[in-house]
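Known limitations

Structure tokens in this collection are predictions and should be treated as such. Users comparing against experimental data should check residue numbering before alignment. To illustrate the layout, the record for Alanyl-tRNA synthetase class IIc N-terminal domain-containing protein is reproduced below. The input appears on top and the generated tokens appear beneath it.
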Amino acid sequence: TTALWLLDTYAYSTQARVLQVSKDESQEKGTWEVVLDATVFHPQGGGQPADRGLLIADACKWPVRAVRASKAGKVVHQVEHTGTAPPFAVGQELRCEVDAHFRIEAARLHSGGHLIDVAMLASGCTLRPTKGYHFSPGAYVEYAGKLSSEDRETLLPKLQAQMDEIGR
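Generated tokens:
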């Protein structure tokens, strides 16, 4: 699958061709897995949620429930479809439409996590980042180690100054 979202964060739609379609037996009824030759859908990973949106063909719209990257380099789109026959045929052309508002929010939270880490380093903090969670609400970055109460009191103003500087 060609990962078009890597080339342009602001690409929200594209035409694609169906490479594989199969019923997802591990999920609830009505879930199908679709692999395309190219996609603008960002899969979940790196602490960031998967894009939301639609796959559109023949004037029909299928909501995308989840998107994941396989180890084989394929991007798997899980779509809602209650029919017994597959929603798409291999080789069929369709349109991918990403929810732009959701994508921008996810990208903003992901970038914000990296900015916090840059500000932590620039503030002289030596704690090692261990986890980034960039979902709304509740985005955060975790660090390994502990700060003394004195270091905590001095870090916050340094961190705020660094964030203000980065934001200029």
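For this record: The mean pLDDT is 91. Strands lie at 2-3, 13-23, 31-36, 38-39, 53-57, 60-69, 75-80, 93-98, 128-133, 140-144. Please report discrepancies through the issue tracker.
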